[in-house]
């Protein structure tokens, strides 16, 4: 059997990437539904758990690519659901910080932990070189996606 051409491999990668993104979006929706959250709220919580300290709503807008108004409404929903609180910054009383509620975040984390057990089995047969390659690809995809989100939000699909 002949070796696939680069164009055939790229075509397969493009198709597989579209299926991967759709599968992840559907997975994200299912997890959000399970927790009674909007999918964007779920991913914002995910990002907030990766932050070392409480953040401002402006920083949440930066993390998510949302406008500050949309980020404020997102924080309102997360606060109503009991996942975050708003607290005055002790160093700068003009700033309001969004703080995670530990008990609710523990529940959130428990769902991810249960799902992660199955996720990690996908990588058991891979060696360190393969894991490094996948991690590098994911980092490049995150950077690329961030750029594409900015292009879409700005309405500038013609820029390269």
Notable characteristics:
160 residues; mainly alpha
Distance between the termini: 38 Å
Number of strands: 3
Beta content: 5-15%
The value of Rg in angstroms is 19 Å
Largest sheet: 3 strands, antiparallel
Shape: globular
Strand order of the largest sheet: 1-3-2
What does this structure look like?
This protein is mostly helical. Helix content is 68%, strand content 8%. It contains six helices and three strands. The protein has helices at 6-35, 39-49, 57-64, 68-80, 102-121, 128-154; strands spanning 55-56, 84-88, 96-100. It has a three-stranded antiparallel beta sheet with strand order 1-3-2. β2 and β3 (96-100) form a beta hairpin. α1 packs across α2 and α3 crosses α4. The longest helix has 30 residues, at 6-35. The chain is globular. The chain starts with 5 loop residues before the first helix and ends in a 6-residue tail after the last helix.
């Amino acid at each position: 059997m002949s070796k696939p051409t680069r164009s055939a491999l790229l075509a397969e990668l493009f198709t597989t990437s579209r299926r991967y993104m759709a599968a992840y979006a559907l997975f994200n929706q299912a997890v959000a539904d399970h927790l009674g959250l909007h999918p964007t709220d779920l991913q914002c919580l995910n990002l907030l758990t990766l932050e070392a300290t409480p953040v401002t709503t402006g920083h949440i807008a930066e993390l998510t690519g949302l406008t500050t108004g949309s980020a404020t409404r997102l924080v309102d929903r997360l606060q109503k659901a009991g996942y975050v609180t708003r607290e005055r910054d002790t160093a700068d009383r003009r700033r309001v910080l969004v703080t995670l509620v530990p008990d609710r975040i523990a529940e959130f984390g428990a769902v991810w932990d249960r799902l992660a057990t199955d996720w990690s089995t996908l990588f058991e047969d891979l060696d360190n070189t393969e894991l490094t390659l996948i991690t590098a690809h994911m980092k490049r995809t995150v950077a690329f996606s961030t750029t594409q989100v900015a292009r879409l939000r700005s309405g500038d699909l013609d820029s390269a």
